[in-house]
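G., the chain you wanted modeled:
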Amino acid sequence: MSAPAAVFDHAPAPAAKACTVNPLKMSQPLGAALAYLGIAGSMPVLHGSQGCTAFGLVLFVRHFRESIPLQTTAMNEVTTILGGGDNIEKALLNIHKRAKPALIGIASTGLTETKGDDVAGDLRRIRAAHPELDMPIVYTSTPDYIGAFQDGWAKAVTGIIESLARPGTTVKGQVNILPGSHLTPGDVAELRDIVADFGLHPIVLPDLAGSLDGHVPDDFSPTSLGGTTVADIGRIGASEATIAIGEQMRHAAEVLTGKTGVPAKVFDRLTGLLAADDLFAYLSALSGRPVPEKYRRQRSQLVDAMLDAHFFFGGRRVAIGAEPDLLWTLGAWLKDMGCTLAAAVTTTDSPMLANLAACGARLGDLEDLEAEARDCDLLITHSHGRQAAQRLGIPLLRMGLPIFDRLGAGARIIVGYRGTRDLTFEVGNIFLAHGHELRPDDGTPGAAGGGCGGGSGAAPACAGACRDHHSITEA
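Predicted structure as tokens:
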């Protein structure tokens, strides 16, 4: 896949300070744990202290408002110095006895990574001594002193593929979906339904829509409540194609291709008119079917929504703090709508940063974001940015993880035509609620000016939508 066009102008710069003051990022182990939660009957385990696991458990419970299975090897001062092999063995035996999981996913933490535990060697020893541990055990090295949430997610998915994927005879119509960590359970469900409506049979890895979509189970389960089964993971090597969403999933898709021969297509984003068009054109070509009528209708509705909303987006200045793939998704879409991304702060290094070369784009924290968002019209980040938005006196759009002061975070949809339309209305209503006036510094008119960012500043996608108002997706 060719690299997407740059939204910004300058190279990204790191924060020019020695410490994080107001954290933006979530750690690698939490990203890996969430990926494991997308596997049916799984039990994520953090190899570290009890406090590490307690923090992650509280964060996930507050965000999803669901019961979260998450265990720990409970390292203490002595075991940290002497080595954690015995703690891993005790944890695995207890989990096997009490929960009977279909899969155990282990993620390391900074504590055990600093010590240098040979977890892979410990697992070989433990399996040899305890043949009753017959479930898959996947280990991922995720030190929390480097990287960020999406790195841990991507490593865990890659580890699952390396451990469980096998080549197979191609099954006509079977398609793999590798969603990035920035997609919500609602996004995953929407994408799965879109693929299925082309007559294809998707296997989603990991499938948060099956485990954390907010449903009430029939019976109590000590493990994850749904998701991709271990049997389905074993079948992904027989698929016709793999669809990966987000640059973070490129390596996992390449590993799967190298191991099974299944060709992969990486979509940098699925939010926006042109981005959704690319997805539907690909699915139409892959399936040999025309785009279903309901999605042609949704495309027309999105175009109409963009025409209705572009008056209120034009020239607005937005600040975003998010993981790289979510930052790219939102930043590119806002650019399409005629906004200016005045501040962009992200959490970890990524190839997408070459396309996120904003005026002042940087690896940093919420303090950096707040300092650069002083003249913005909208702040976009997770719930920990609410105090900054209050101090700045600008509205906050909560995106990413965690969102603990609003309901329904897991059900939000921003992918495809329908998701982009709903996001357009949501952001447009924020701009409407907080008024528009002539900006004195650049003379850019808002709603009162009746323009789309003022002549030459009109949004490219909006302009295209105006020309193609009555067009529909061509198969």
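Residues 1-11, 437-475 have pLDDT under 50 and may be disordered.

Shout if anything looks off.
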